From TrEMBL:
The chain crosses the membrane at residues 18-36, 90-110, 176-194, 215-236, 256-279, 357-378. Belongs to the binding-protein-dependent transport system permease family. HisMQ subfamily. Its main location: membrane. The keyword Cell membrane applies. It is found in: Cell inner membrane; Cell membrane. Residues 84-375 form the ABC transmembrane type-1 domain. GO terms for biological process: amino acid transport. Keywords: Amino-acid transport, Cell membrane, Membrane, Transmembrane, Transmembrane helix, Transport. This is Glutamate Aspartate transport system permease protein GltJ (TC 3.A.1.3.4). Gene3D superfamilies: MetI-like. NCBIfam families: HEQRo_perm_3TM. It comes from the Bacteria.
Length: 387
């Protein structure tokens, strides 16, 4: 017996739902078409060229700090790539450092030591309520106005100089450096695998695997093996003062240092509250049960409480990572050449502001979605699975 045919009726909620969604989609499509058409018409009337063809033209301007090779003879596309890499570099370092500092301060907020608790609380309340832009100006002024020139640079350690050009220090050079970096990456991967195996081993036997000592051995041994395999060809490039600046070594610019310090200190205050609330969300009985097994407070926090608190911490932590990444756009205020600064220079020279803004929007949208996808994947991975 065939099923009765469904009659379309306006009284059917599902029919009305489909109609409303189609109308809403049509309205959005019409609005987008109107805006794009109107913009192209106005640009054509003013003889303003459109498109992204300018990215293949010679840029003709210098960028003060670049993680990849760049000269003014390179294209605008290369310049935009330099700005994007600079943004990714500051965002990645900022996320790692802010997470470490914020976690430590969040744990300190719950300390039974009165002084530690109060200092952590003061830090959080002050840093959260001072605007980030003001903090960036403060750190930049501190690093530039109170520092002497290269000839009068402070020399706290051999080969290390602090001046208004930034922090200059020795750097490693040679073929062995690549081998040592490979050994370091291998050590990180081995530590992650050992940690996973150690948890499984503890669940089966009840014995705690000494992961800390094993990781220390890996982080020392594997880079050392890489150094030996490369023929021990590693040289120390010590900076020297020649003329009006230092030659050799590596220099951490005041702009980069000020931006990194501002982002880390500001964001860590919010992360500290996320960590504190996540730990407090774990039932007090978990502390008492773990303590009754003879575990120390630090072991209880690391082995019992924090793994459960992560399920509460991860979602708001994702928002803080996204905020840090987007707040890095304030770099233009202190002269750090991030993607916003580079694209601003590009659109001032080419006059193609719409394309420039679209490039910035696409870059931040891609980075933010990538962070969200990874954090959502990790959140699902640690979520409780009901049986």
């Amino acid at each position: 017996m065939s099923a009765p045919k469904r009659r379309l009726s306006w009284n059917d909620p599902s029919v009305r739902s489909v109609v409303y969604q189609v109308l809403a989609l049509a309205a959005v499509g019409f609005a987008v078409w109107y805006l794009v058409s109107n913009t192209l018409t106005n640009l054509s009337a003013r003889n303003i060229s459109t498109g992204f063809g300018f990215l293949s033209r010679e840029a003709g301007f210098a960028i003060g700090e670049s993680a990849i090779a760049y000269t003014p003879a390179d294209t605008y596309g290369r310049a935009v790539m330099v700005g994007l890499v600079n943004t990714l570099k500051i965002a990645a370092l900022g996320i790692v450092l802010a997470t470490i500092l914020g976690t430590l301060i969040g744990i300190a907020r719950l300390s039974k030591n009165w002084l530690v608790h109060k200092l952590a609380r003061i830090y959080v309340e002050v840093m959260r309520n001072v605007p980030l832009l003001l903090q960036l100006f403060f750190w930049y002024a501190l690093l530039t106005e109170n520092a002497a020139g290269p000839r009068q640079a402070a020399n706290p350690l051999p080969g290390v100089f602090i001046s208004n050009r930034g922090l200059t220090m020795p750097s490693l050079e040679g073929q062995a450096l690549d081998w040592m970096l490979g050994g370091l990456i291998l050590a990180i991967l081995c530590t992650i695998l050992l940690g996973h195996w150690g948890r499984k081993h503890q669940e089966k036997t009840g014995r705690v695997f000494p992961l800390g000592r094993a990781a220390l051995g890996l982080f020392i041994g594997l880079p050392l093996i890489g150094w030996l395999l490369s023929g021990a060809s590693l040289a120390l490039n010590v900076p020297e003062l020649k003329g009006f600046n230092f030659v050799g070594g590596v220099t951490l610019s005041p702009e980069f240092a000020a931006l990194l310090a501002g982002l880390v200190i500001y964001t860590s205050a919010f992360i500290a509250e996320v960590v504190r609330s996540g730990i407090q969300a774990v039932n007090q009985g978990q502390w008492e049960a773990a303590g009754s097994l003879g575990l120390k407070r630090g072991q209880v926090l690391r082995l019992v409480v924090l793994p459960q608190a992560l399920r509460v911490i991860i979602p708001p932590m994702t928002s803080q990572y996204l905020n840090l990444t987007k707040n890095s756009s304030l770099a233009v205020a202190i002269g750090y050449p991030d993607i916003v600064s580079v694209v601003n220079t590009t659109l001032n020279q080419t006059g193609q502001a719409i394309e420039g803004i679209l490039i910035i929007m696409a870059a931040y949208l891609t980075v933010s979605l990538s962070i969200s996808i990874f954090m959502n994947w990790y959140n699902k991975r640690i979520a409780l699975v009901e049986r």
